[in-house]
Amino acid sequence: MAKRGPKRITKRALREALEAAGGIVSLAARRLGVDRRTVYYHLSRDRRLQEELETFRRLAVLMAEQVVFEALRKGDFEAARFVLRSLGARYGWSQRQSIALEHKAEIPSAVKIEVVRA
């Protein structure tokens, strides 16, 4: 039996699936009913689709940032910690980790992670 190539997908269907999936290739592949390798195969052959994929990913990140900042405005502690960990380094914030040991040979009894201003 001859080897079959990747399933044929129209560029339009692929573009729409990638956009709907926010640039997540595995999710787009699932929507199309193909393996993600098939999507990567088609992407590797079309520079414009690669650029559109990057655009969809940038938009997804912007949307995620908007959700985080809305949560931050509402006083969500986890959102604040996320922003300080990811963006705060430019402004003197860093993540500090400490491990408490009762005896040197033991497994840590407590692990503490804090976001602190340096």
Topology:
Layout (H helix, E strand, L loop, with lengths): L10 H10 L4 H8 L3 H9 L2 H27 L3 H10 L6 E8 L9 E8 L1
Antiparallel strand pairs: 1-2
What percent of residues are in strands?
5-15%
The total of beta strands comes to 2
Average pLDDT number: 84
Task: Write down the Rg.
Answer: 22 Å
Q: How many H/I helices?
A: 5
Helix content: 40-55%
Distance from first to last alpha carbon:
65 Å
| Main beta sheet | 2 strands, antiparallel
Give an overview in words:
With 118 residues, the protein is of the alpha+beta class. It is 54% helix and 14% strand. The chain contains 5 helices and 2 strands; from the N terminus they run αααααββ. The chain has helices at 11-20, 25-32, 36-44, 47-73, 77-86, and strands at residues 93-100, 110-117. It is elongated.
Name the features.
single chain, 118 residues, 54% helix, 14% strand, elongated
Task: Quickly describe the structure.
This protein has helices at residues 11-20, 25-32, 36-44, 47-73, 77-86; strands at 93-100, 110-117.
